[in-house]
Specification:
By secondary structure, chain A is an all-alpha fold. Helices cover about 70% and strands about 0% of the residues of chain A. Chain A has 2 helices and no strands. In chain A, helix 1 packs antiparallel against helix 2 (about 45-65). The two termini of chain A are about 15 Å apart. Chain B has one domain (about 5-260). Classes of the chains: A mainly alpha, B mainly alpha.
Chain lengths: ~70, ~260
């Protein structure tokens, strides 16, 4: 876009927080459901960590490269 | 668990807590007539009245009130709306953003205005209500601009990410944009106002208790110091109140811009 240079951030600086909460929440939920289904107990923490890792990957990919 | 017994001389002191935010109705017995709800109505009328009067009687040599109104309006219009949303679309969102900013600002300032001294948004339900309005606004704009499916695509598929990892990203993006975003928006405003007001009543009540209910001169003088600190914290709160009103408005503009943006 041909906007003049911006003093304010163009993207939501709180997006990182949203990704972390969303990633941890969603994949922990998926892990919990799988735990219920497969009668295991390790998939909730595994999903939690996976969600956080994915969120950190997204933050780096989308916001720190831009 | 009680912490009051551990401090000598403070046995009779009841520290303030979340219960102090549940104010009784000013009159009648409906929660609609409690102080927070009344303050909300007063602020809406006051903000509307201020801008109505200052924009109605525009003079060539502006009065002080007109000057303040124009400065505030110009700041939100140029530094928030135009710079974030872009010169093409920003004009139709200026009324919303100006109203949001001054409505939140006045409600926050109620926290340190003498005799009122209650920040309305320290009651979380008001902050959530405001966030719901913003949520409806930016999602509505996105659907209007891209269509429902196009907007869902716009929201869940970030540019620059391709391949199978997209399957993992889509639910995460949906979660963070559609579900987490309004909650953090409301929580930030609410928590700042809640914590600030709690700090103020703690210093004020604690200072008053030390000053009046202790027979030791040391405690009395510490009480005076505490009350002076309460005034200092009030000035800190003034800063927080301004910043939170600004942040809420800025984020609203950023969300609108994000919903309007073309697919990258």
């Amino acid at each position: 876009m041909s906007e003049p240079p911006q003093r304010v951030p163009a993207a939501d600086p709180w997006a990182a927080f949203g990704y972390l909460v969303g990633g941890a929440g969603f994949y922990a939920g998926v892990g919990w459901l799988l735990d219920q289904w497969l009668e295991t107990s390790f998939l909730l923490p595994a999903g939690l960590l996976f969600g956080i890792a994915l969120a950190i990957y997204l933050v780096f990919k989308l916001h720190l490269n831009a | 668990m009680t912490t009051t017994g551990q401090v000598p001389g403070a046995e009779g002191f009841t520290p303030p807590g979340p219960g102090d935010f549940n104010l009784p109705p000013v009159f009648g017995d409906s929660v609609l007539f409690a102080k927070p709800a009344l303050l909300l109505v007063v602020s809406a009328v006051a903000v509307f009245g201020f801008f109505f009067v200052t924009s109605r009687r525009t003079a060539l040599v502006p009065s002080k009130a007109q000057y303040v109104g124009e400065q505030g309006y110009g700041f939100i219009r140029n530094s928030v709306a135009r710079d974030v949303i872009g010169s093409q679309h920003f004009l139709k969102f200026v009324p919303w953003l100006v109203a949001t900013f001054f409505f939140i600002l006045l409600n926050n300032l109620f926290g340190i205005i003498p005799l009122i001294q209650f920040p309305t948004f320290s009651r979380s339900s008001f902050a959530y209500g405001l966030a719901v309005l913003v949520w409806l606004l930016y999602n509505g704009i996105g659907i209007w601009k891209h269509g429902l499916l196009g907007y869902l695509r716009h929201v869940t598929m970030p540019a620059g990410i391709t391949g199978p990892i997209l399957v993992l990203i889509i639910p995460l993006e949906f979660f963070s944009t559609v579900l987490v975003r309004p909650v953090t928006l409301a929580l930030r405003l609410f928590a700042n106002m809640f914590a600030g007001h709690l700090l103020l009543i703690l210093f004020t009540l604690g200072g008053e208790y030390l000053l009046l209910n202790s027979d030791k001169v040391l405690y009395n003088s510490v009480g005076v110091l505490t009350l002076i600190l309460a005034v200092a914290i009030s000035f800190l709160e003034l800063l927080v109140q301004l910043i939170q009103a600004y942040v809420f408005t800025l984020l609203t503009a950023i969300y609108i811009q994000g919903a309007l943006a073309e697919d990258h």
